[in-house]
Amino acid sequence: MANHLYKNDLPDGLDLGPIVAIDCETMGLNPHRDRLCVIQMSGGDGDAHIVQVEKGQTSAPNLCAMLENPDVLKLFHFGRFDIAAMYNAFGALTAPVYCTKIASRLVRTYTDRHGLKNLTQELIGVDISKQQQMSDWGAETLTAAQLDYAASDVLHLHQLREELNKRLAREGRTEMAQACFDFLPMRAKLDLAGWPETDIFAHS
Amino acid sequence: MANHLYKNDLPDGLDLGPIVAIDCETMGLNPHRDRLCVIQMSGGDGDAHIVQVEKGQTSAPNLCAMLENPDVLKLFHFGRFDIAAMYNAFGALTAPVYCTKIASRLVRTYTDRHGLKNLTQELIGVDISKQQQMSDWGAETLTAAQLDYAASDVLHLHQLREELNKRLAREGRTEMAQACFDFLPMRAKLDLAGWPETDIFAHS
Ligand SMILES: Nc1ncnc2c1ncn2[C@@H]1O[C@H](COP(=O)(O)O)[C@@H](OP(=O)(O)O)[C@H]1O
Ligand SMILES: Nc1ncnc2c1ncn2[C@@H]1O[C@H](COP(=O)(O)O)[C@@H](OP(=O)(O)O)[C@H]1O
């Protein structure tokens, strides 16, 4: 279990495998105002790869190749936000994707708590701290606490997916979940294009 | 311009062409309670084909073949509701589809009025009456006013689509619209499966 820290992009030749867990840290929730600061990734082996993004940076070729690679599944919790943040920063639309929050909504119908902390607690018995969630991710030097927090957000997503997939199959909702995942990149694009609060499918 | 009235299903051998406008009338807005009563269709030639559905009816083979035909585009205004109603009644999931309400949301950003009446008025200068919208569609014999109303809901959808497609292209939003249309059948399925009010893509 190690944290690998990089500036601007993933290093050349690093292959994180066929399923990559991803989470982003930004300056806030408005992608047009709040820049992307950190992208943390994991191949599911316990290691976290953390890329710091500079203010004004508009490209990250190795990262984007992975995001757009049709043979690599990108695993998120509430991917809508991260997909939009990275599309906004680099122009690369992430696909295909899996979102643990959507999967949770489709199987954990006995609760309305679909936060990452709730999921890891219930599904794999791990307590993650959310203490650094609101911190200055734009700082040039990130603290050890920040790095550990960033890592903790991606280290369990593979295991969560396994468990959620079992339950989706059990309840006969795998196909429904897949259709939602397929639409998610476009839902993120709609956020940036100007429909962030609109349920585009609603009657009114 | 004629209304053709049928019982239970479309007649054998009737081909409505590659783009079929469809609208349904039901006993109300709750598909688990309110049965499907009427399905009106048009090939875009000014004729309306109106199928009356019996209480308890669970199949309509000719209709369903068309609904599921991948080479026939099904054109709706707020298709989410109609797709769910027909899936619930007959088990056939309509695809591929086009929805004029969604297209309108994506191009008529200067208004929040995306009702069918607003669309026909603005885009093709036609006034349709909504007077029979709330009426007893479960009646054995439909009134002439009901039949004309039912027809009016499908006769203009082809023209609306033409105009909306021009504007989607002009604004560079064709691909976004297509992604929404592709997800729509599954959105309808989610309604029936128990997520009618949930924006499945929302944070909370
Ligand atoms: N409207 C919103 N409210 C709260 N969190 C939001 C949000 N929009 C996006 N997010 C992101 O969703 C993640 C939290 O999801 P959840 O509450 O389900 O655990 C947060 O990421 P981080 O955990 O990386 O900070 C946060 O940045
Ligand atoms: N929550 C809702 N409120 C109003 N209309 C709804 C609705 N859910 C579905 N509909 C359907 O959407 C259609 C109206 O759309 P709009 O308001 O955009 O013109 C109506 O069909 P009909 O026009 O066939 O009766 C109505 O049955």
From TrEMBL, chains A, B:
<dbReference type="GO" id="GO:0008408">
    <property type="term" value="F:3'-5' exonuclease activity"/>
</dbReference>
<dbReference type="InterPro" id="IPR051086">
    <property type="entry name" value="RNase_D-like"/>
</dbReference>
<dbReference type="GO" id="GO:0003676">
    <property type="term" value="F:nucleic acid binding"/>
</dbReference>
<protein>
    <submittedName>
        <fullName>Ribonuclease D</fullName>
        <ecNumber>3.1.13.5</ecNumber>
    </submittedName>
</protein>
<feature type="domain" description="3'-5' exonuclease">
    <location>
        <begin position="1"/>
        <end position="169"/>
    </location>
</feature>
<dbReference type="GO" id="GO:0033890">
    <property type="term" value="F:ribonuclease D activity"/>
</dbReference>
<dbReference type="InterPro" id="IPR002562">
    <property type="entry name" value="3'-5'_exonuclease_dom"/>
</dbReference>
<dbReference type="InterPro" id="IPR012337">
    <property type="entry name" value="RNaseH-like_sf"/>
</dbReference>
<dbReference type="GO" id="GO:0006139">
    <property type="term" value="P:nucleobase-containing compound metabolic process"/>
</dbReference>
<keyword id="KW-0378">Hydrolase</keyword>
<dbReference type="InterPro" id="IPR036397">
    <property type="entry name" value="RNaseH_sf"/>
</dbReference>
<dbReference type="Pfam" id="PF01612">
    <property type="entry name" value="DNA_pol_A_exo1"/>
</dbReference>
